[in-house]
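Incident log, structure service

09:12 report received: a user says their structure output differs between two submissions of the same chain.
09:20 pulled the input from the user's history:
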Amino acid sequence: MCPSSNVQTRAFRSYGEHPIDSLRRAAVSLGINTDARTITNISLSQEYRKLKDHFGWDNREFLACNLEALRAAFVEDSLKNSLSHKLDEAYSQIEK
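09:34 re-ran on a clean worker, output below:
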């Protein structure tokens, strides 16, 4: 999902009204993206900050979304496993 782009294109009236948090709470598989950075001038870090500010997301939600995106990737399982391990390791090093 690309929440900032969805707001910019008026798919949703505001960031706070975006259904991304409700979908996450309903255990829908999500990946967070930025869409076209030449149109929506936002980095992934900025998108994460907005999710944190609007919905109180923390590293658990971001890791879960990263792992879901990885599970849906069209790459070999061995690469998925390797990257999954690296994500787990990296997030464990981040202050909560």
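09:41 both user submissions now match this output. Likely a transient worker issue. Closing.
09:42 reviewer note: The chain has one domain: 3-93. The longest helix spans residues 77-93.
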